[in-house]
Structure formats: C-alpha cells, structure tokens
User: Fold these one by one.
Assistant:
Number 1:
Amino acid sequence: MKKTILLTLLSGAMAFQVSGQTYKGHVESMSDQIEQKVVSYRRHFHQNPELSNREFKTSEFVAEKLKSLGLEVKTGVAKTGVVAILKGGKPGPVVALRADMDGLPVPERAPLEFASKVKSEYNGQEVPVMHACGHDTHMAMLLGAAEILTSMRKDIKGTIKFIFQPAEEGAPRGEEGGAKLMIKEGVLENPKVDAIFGIHINAQTEVGKIKYRPEGTMAAVDILNITVKGRQSHGAYPWLGVDPIVVSSQIIMGLQTIVSRQIDLTNQGAVVTIGSLHSGVRSNIIPEEAKMEGTIRTLDANMQNSIHERITRTATNIAESAGATAVVDIHREYPITFNDKELTEKTVPSLVKAAGKDNVSLTKAVTGAEDFSFFQEKVPGVFVFVGGMPKGKNVLETGAHHTPDFFIDESGMKTGVKAYCFMALDYMDAKK
Ligand SMILES: [Zn+2]
Ligand SMILES: [Zn+2]
C-alpha cells in the first residue's frame, strides 16, 4: 500500500508537461472533448458488427481513422488486424495497447436505435451478428486514446503500438486467428514491445469503476478428451464383456474428486467439467467404446499441470481396474490471463488517475478466458476491467456478455480512454 502511494506521488512529481499543463490535465480535458466522437465510433461498430476473422469493414474503418491521425499503419495483420505505431519525440520503451475487434453470432434484443440487424455466415450457417461482448467499445476507446496520445507526440518518451486484434472469440473452424496469429506474424517485434496493456468493458461493473487483479485473472482453457475402450457384449450377458459406459461413469465421478479433494483451493479456484458423453446405440448392446469431452479451467500454472496429471492418472487407473483402457488427451487452448505482479502494482496509480481512488478495486478471478493471455506469455502485460453497467443497476438485471440483452452504458468509455492513456504514459514516464 505504501509503495502504491509513493509511486503516485513520484509519477505526479515527474510528469511532463503538455502545453503548460501536466499530461494528466491534458488527457482529462481531451477525453472530455472527444467523448462524443468515441461514442459515435462505438455506435458505428455496434451497428456494423463482423464475426471473427471477417472484420473487413471494421478493419478499414479503424485503419482510416488511425491514418488520419498521421500514424504509421499496417493492415492485414493476422488477416484483418490493424497495427499503428506512434513514435514519441523522445527515446524510451515500447508500449502496446490492445483492443479486440470481433462480434458474435448472437441476435440483438436491446431496443437501441443503433441495434445490429446484421446477418452473416458462421461455419456454413446463417446467423445474426452482434457486438455482444463489447469489443465495439474497446475499438472506440482505443481510437480515442490514439487521438489523445498522438496530440502529445513530441513529449512522449518512447513508442506506442496500437494493436487492433481480430478473432478474440476464436477463429472459425479450421482457421488460425487472434492474438496467437498476430504474435506469429511478429506483432510484438519491430519495434520490440516491452509491456502490453488491455481493457475489457464489463457489463456487470458500474460505469466509472475499474477492476483489476494481480497474477491469475482469467482462466486457462484446456480441452479434455477421454476415450474408454471395453469389450462389446450382449446387454443380457455383461460378464462376457467390459462395459465402457459403467467405466466412464466411474471416471466422471473420480474426476469430481480432483478439485474437491486433491487441490489446494485456498490457492486458486479450478474447474473440471465433462460436457459430453457418447456411447452405444441401443438398449441391449453393451458397446465397445465411450467418448467424453470436457473443459479444464485453471488460474495457476502449477495447478494446471498437476490437474492434468491427476486426470490422466484417475482415468487410466479406473479403467485398468475394470479391465478397460482409457486414453486421455488434453489440448491446451488458451493460457492463463496472467497479470505480471510487479507491473500490476505499478499500473494501479494509472488506474486511480483514470477513475479516482474510490473507483479502483480488486476483482475476483474469472473462470472464463481471454486470448490476451497469449501476449502475456511473451511480454509482461496487464488486463483490466472497465465498468459499463448503468449506475444504480443491479448485476442480476443487466444483460450478461454473449447474450441478446447485453448492454453497455456508453458513459463508461471515457474512463477506459483515460486508462489506456495513463497506463501507457505512466509506464514510459517511469522508464525514461
Ligand atoms: Zn466474449
Ligand atoms: Zn470479450
């Protein structure tokens, strides 16, 4: 706590000036000035949502706005991504700010003037499309921050990379995409990024508030597949076969004891869910095989590895005890969204600058996932949540993310614009 206060004081004392005022004052007055513009960007994106890896028009709009600021802009990164570089007037580190761009196959139900009526194709099916996760607000806020930061160009001590990332929600079947593909295409190189910051709007956090968490913030996602092989027999003579359905049931019950009995839950939470189980064709045949599929969510790398080992041990040994076999396959889909501890500590004063001391608080970990985690595997990064819930509303009466009633109060975006600016500026100021 002491350290936090000291950092706030120091960064206040060292802060550079922009046209006679501290950069805090400049960011504040400009974020007021451009608030309506940011809202209009958001409405444009909201009315014209595009699915993952199909953000063609979105990408054009973003690139055009960034070019009009006089930034060096690269398009077609990871298919539809846009990257802009702002070289400050003074030497210093390279900071990346990230916003994601994709909508979801969800019909919009909110009675908004600018509600989406867009339809598109997803995995061969016609679907309605909506910005049902708020990525429209992320792009609008980052365009706003880019305008503010560009206006301070000659005083900036370092380089800022604006990363507009496609396909956060996952690429369509058989395609690559998202943060992983951007990294593969070198987004963190030339110039090499020293730190990255990301924001997610949150429909269940009141406008004006920011929530954050050091270390494990959103979960890793691993996909679990187990194939149980028994021996087929007539349903009337089970002793002649090995029943993979009964063995699978035992395995599923065994898996329940991993999180509840074997893992130190005071450290972090974890989830093991079996979401599908398939076997057999009719009542009087004991089949040869059963297949199940599940998801594993973890917030700590050691726990993640330990849970993987325990799942394999539990499934194979239970199968063996029955004379069956179980083949376990675990595929790592998304890493943990892991906020670097030291960087998070240093970022808190920036969040306080953006929202005020009483509006910044710790949040619980989330068992959902974010592909921002791929960036954090490569460079220290911080990912925070900015409020989009109307004041005085209750979390239970607001539409959740990924649902037709998802709703964001646009007045929350100004806090996000400022947070983007201060996270970048304070980092560069401290490193000069
Ligand atoms: Zn989402
Ligand atoms: Zn999202």
Number 2:
Amino acid sequence: MKRLSTDILILGSGGAGLFAALHAKKVAPGLSVTVAVKGLLGKCGCTRMVQGGYNVALAPGDSAERHFMDTVEGGKFLNEQDLAWTLVTVAQLRIRELESELGCFFDRNPDGTIHQKAFAGQTFDRTVHKGDLTGIEIINRLAEQVWAHDIARLEEHRAVALIRARGGDALAGVLMIDMRSGEFVFVQARAVLLATGGGPTMYKYHTPSGDKSCDGMAMALQAGLDLRDMEMVQFHPTGLLAGCETRMTGTVLEEGLRGAGGYLLGGDGRRFMHNYDPRLERATRDIVSRAMIAEIRRGNTTPNGGLWIDMRHLGAADVRRLFKGMVERCADCGFDLAGGLVEVIPTAHYMMGGVVFAQDCTTALPGLFAAGEDTGGVHGGNRLGGNGVANSTVFGGIAGDSMAAWIPEHGRFREPDGSAIAAAIAACRIPLDHPQGDIGALRERLYELMWEDVGIFRDASGLRRAEGALVALDEELDHTGIAGDTLAFNLTWQDWLNLKSLVLVSRAITSAALAREESRGAHFRSDFPATTPDENLAFTKVWLADGVIVCDHEPVRFTRIRPGESLLGNAAA
Ligand SMILES: Cc1cc2nc3c(=O)[nH]c(=O)nc-3n(C[C@H](O)[C@H](O)[C@H](O)COP(=O)(O)OP(=O)(O)OC[C@H]3O[C@@H](n4cnc5c(N)ncnc54)[C@H](O)[C@@H]3O)c2cc1C
C-alpha cells in the first residue's frame, strides 16, 4: 500500500470540493491541499451537469427572507433552519464571487443586471443561469482556478474508507484505490472534506453522473456517523424516456421547461395536472412526479410507458433560443422538443438526506468536514430546483474556510488504526476470492426493487420486502467475483464497489422510509397519505451498528420560525 500525506484532503471535485480547495488555499496558502476524485477534475460529478441554474435573492423585491421561506416551506419544515439561512445569505456572496473572482458569465437582462428565471415552487424568479447549461460554466471556471493554484490532484482515485486514528477519537486519513493501477493508497490528512455528492443512482431511472454511487454516505455510515432525512429522495418529473438501450434514458430535462410554461400531456394528448394541483405543471417536483406516476398507473401513457412534455405552444424559435441544450439533447435521441412532443418519466435526481453536519461544516468525527449533496439538513423534506448548486458552492466555501482555520489548533497528523485499514482492504478484495458473476444483473435487480418498492409511492409491505431483498442482494454480492485478471482499470471491480455503496445506502433509505409513517415532502406513503401536524415534527436519523441499520427520530429545532409563521411582513408575503 502506498502512503501519501497532505494537510487538507478533499474528496470530490464538484462545486463543494472545488470551492473548498480554493477557499482553503486562500485562507491558509501555506497548507497543502489535495483534491482526490473518482473521475477527472472538472469532468465528473453533477455540478457540471447543472442545467437550470442557481437560486439567489438578488433582484429588488426579492430577499434572503423570501428565499428562506420558500426553502423551508418547500422542505416542509424539516430543514435545519440555521443551515437554510446560511444557504440563502451566503449564496448572495457566492454568486458575486463566481462572477467577479472566478469569471463566470451568467445571462443578463438588457439593463445589465443578472437575468433570473422562474423555477417551480418559488415565489420569485430568482434562478441565475447560463442558458440551460449553467453547470458547465461554473465547473469550468472553478477547475481553471484550481489548476492555476498550488493544489495537488489525485484523479481517478476512489475513496473507499474513512480511517480513524488509533484510539478512534479522530480521523487519521482516507483509504483510496488508485483506479489506474488498482493499488491501495492511504492518504493521511489533518482535515478531510467529504464532498462526493450523494446521488440516487440506485433507481431504475436516475439523473446523476455515472461516477456517483453514494460512496461518501456509505463511508460515513461505515465510520459510525449519523445520516439524516434519508427517506427524502427527490424525483425530477421530466426524465427523458429514450429506450432502455441508451444511458440518456433518465437524464433530466430541466425544470425551466415547466417554469416557462411547458405542458405535461398524458398518452391521450391531454393535460392532466389540473386533476392534481392548482399550480399545474409549476407545482413542486414531488407533487408533479406523483401525479405523473398516478397517471401512468391509470394507463394513460405514451408508447414507451411515460408521458409527453409539450412546448409547441411557446413557439419553436423561442424554445430553441431559450433551451438550446435541451433541444439538442432531445434531438440526439430523435425527439423535437421545440416543435413536437418528447417522452418523459419521473427520474431519481437528488438526495435531501445525508451526513449530519454543522453550519461550519464540521461533523461528529473530529477532522472530518462535509459539504454539498453528501450532507443532510439544508433542504429538509424537499429541495427547490436551483438550491442544489447553491448548497454545494456555499457550504464548500465554508468548509474550505473552516478546515483552514481549524487545522492550526486542532489538526494533527494522526497515525491510522492499522487494523481498520486491513479490514477495509479485505472488504474491497472480497470479490477476488469468488468466481466471476453477473454484476450487471445484480445492478438491474437493485434498480427494479428500489424503483418499485422504495420509489415515488411507498408502503410498509413494499418497504419490508425491499429490506429483505437488499440484505439478500448484499450477501449475493459478497459471493460474486469480478471479471479480468488485473485490478488496473478494472471496471467490474469498480462496479462491484459501487454496488456495495449503493446497497448500503439503499438500506438506509428504506429504513428511514419505513420509520416515517406519514407523507411529507418527497416521501409519500400510500398507507399513510396524510401529513401529520407539524407541532412535534422530527427528522429521521440512521446509523450502522454491527452491520445493521438503526433508525431513530430527533425533534426538529425551529430556531428561526415555527410552522405557520413567516419571516416576511404581510405586505412582502
Ligand atoms: C442533470 C442534473 C441537473 C441538475 N441541475 C441543477 C440545477 O439546475 N440547479 C441546482 O441547484 N442543482 C442542480 N442539480 C443538482 C446539483 O448538481 C447538485 O446539487 C450539486 O452540483 C452537487 O454538488 P457536489 O459538489 O455536492 O457534488 P458533485 O458535483 O456531484 O461532485 C461529486 C464529486 O465527488 C466525486 N466522487 C464520488 N465518489 C467518490 C469517491 N468514492 N472518491 C472520490 N471522489 C468521489 C465525483 O467524481 C465528483 O467529482 C442537478 C443535478 C443533475 C444530476
């Protein structure tokens, strides 16, 4: 096993990871900073895939208070309110930083102000964007700055275990696999940021990038940390349905299409949202996704079992101009978004849940910080479109500042627990001792069972069935070998490791979903369709004890407002 050391180790190179690296370097230029990432820096993760844009209250008439209210009302009051407040206030600084320091060009109004578009579930048009491919602008500028600074990179390095120090009281570093050689690498660090970006890729239809397999959450569970709100998986209503032979199926057609006035049609060519919500297609993602599945279950479907999105009434030229990226994406799959109909289906998009963390991005494990989609609490029961990239850039920056400030007093290089490293290596090598099996088939089974039993509609019997099936799948995985005679660039090995993370985190989702016996936000129980009164609202917390997922509840702290109250005066509301 190779050994490396760095003052700050950042896992992941999305908005959270790269912002953290730049901020840490700015606060403490003398500290060594290393970004370790499963893919290539700047080319992987979901921040690059951000389409619609970035929520921030900038325009006259909008305010941080209004953005906060939309965020906690969208989150059905499950949010950790101080985190939500940090999100909406620091986003106002971050967007200036993105423009003025990093050089992002966002779309502008004729008077030179930043253009902000409508997104569903918001009371103000506050989504900053660069056309409909905003993430490429953000991640390219971030990556350029990281390349320009003295920041080390470990690309195609996969983190597999958070390793505690001898004595267990703090983190010593991270065990990684150099995917190019197959070699294990232990990276000792004084502070580590978990920013691997969650990503519900355990569902049959999903949007996140292929490199994401909930590794950060799985490592956090294995390291004894709590995850919260894991039942809250967001399904985006408009995943592209382009046939099972293409990975384009499941990829998202951005929220702005519905924001701009796009219609959803059943297989019969008629709109149906009026049967479900007065806001029609501009209702929040959870409501639209449920309505769509209900319509699909009624049998009112397109030839491939989905529904249509229809933009024709908005004018083909305008649709082409406003949604160039989406029009091209659809054309690649044989659909004409501007002048025709496109088949869509809800698709698993985002996990509101994640590692319990504080406003300064510290976690319960000294030395471990967390930011971005790996964390829980900011969005509560549902995330507003546009709050995801705000979350990762806001808290990524904070994490960089915090780590740099924390190290001088608390951050020591600690000797790792050797037995923990040995156990983690042995766990990764399990498939080497077994005859080659069909990993693809196991993955398909995971997709199906999560889609059917832990998907948009849930009930106790389905969730219990899923619990058993996931344990069985995990055991089967432990007896399944991989292809190839070398570990260098062994993609079946990586796939096996992906599945191990996904199955563990799927168990956490299932357990939390069973524990929440009500419907709230993104979580809908057919056997408990009502939302319970907000007074005694609690969030779910799961952790791993001797290989078993344990779930408990903890009361939500209403630190700024109670349900029913508002930060807005009557006039502003
Ligand atoms: C198609 C799509 C469109 C979206 N559109 C919007 C939008 O319009 N507005 C919005 O606010 N949000 C949007 N989101 C959500 C947004 O992308 C995320 O909220 C945010 O970018 C997450 O940032 P992150 O830094 O936490 O993770 P990511 O950007 O996903 O980065 C995670 C990084 O971790 C790396 N990694 C993963 N596992 C490991 C491992 N084991 N070891 C080392 N590295 C690892 C990955 O390779 C990647 O570099 C969209 C998401 C998708 C998928």
